[in-house]
Amino acid sequence: MTGLPSHSKRPATAPPAQVAILAALGEELRPLLRRTSVARSRDVGPVRVAEGRLGQAALRVALSGVGPVRASAAAASLLDDGAVSALIVIGTAGGLQPGLPAGAVVVAQRLVDGTVPVGTPDASLVARAVRAGALPGTIVSAGRMLCTAQAKARAWAACGASGPAVVDLESAAAVREAVRRRTPWVVVRAVCDPAEEDLPLDFDRFTDDSGELRRGAVARHALLRPARLPALLDLRRRVLACGEQLARLVRRLLEEEAR
Length: 259
Prior knowledge:
Blueprint (H helix, E strand, L loop, with lengths): L17 E6 L2 H9 L2 E8 L2 E8 L2 E7 L4 H13 L3 E12 L9 E9 L2 E2 L5 H9 L3 E7 L7 H11 L5 E4 L2 H10 L4 E9 L21 H9 L5 H30 L1
Parallel strand pairs: 1-4, 1-5, 5-10, 6-8, 8-9
Antiparallel strand pairs: 2-3, 3-4, 5-9, 6-7, 6-10
Helix pairs in contact: 1-7, 2-5, 3-7
């Protein structure tokens, strides 16, 4: 109690809506966090959420972990914890369109879960992502990692895209939570492994029942097969480079929104 008369109290003001940003891997998110002035971190449901500002934009940022189960739970926690103006899903992806190079960034004009469309992205967010350097195209969420060029070729044929297209695991699951809440959304993915390339391991063998990658098992497998280490290290280098590209693009997108 302050002892002030009731008429002297200022009316409560709702905090400004935050932009929620979700990624599956730390390597995908850390470059953006380094550019963010983080005010606090706290646990919200199953995820650790960092809150802060990137330029004029108020952000709420979290890692989901790999796979659709974790992506869905993390997105639900982010979107239910106060006012959110938009959800931006970022991360790496496999190329589906032949010739789409490593490092190319694709924004979803169309998002499909296998071959089933998932919602409609916010047109203004898509346009800003394109002006920031992303290629408009199709993002496919698959039920498992597509680790071979052959598997990616089959997904390319099935998705019916005629332009840039990539594949991931989490986007459709996360976006469904935004669609349920009528929250504007956009998905931006950077190509880590082009369509023509096989991944150095069958990573599906190293995931648990929820789709989470067992990194310790990958490391042990690689140490017993040192000939594969250069390819795995190159893949990690690409993931880190993609994270930097995504951070720059998201920053440009948010700066344009603030103007």
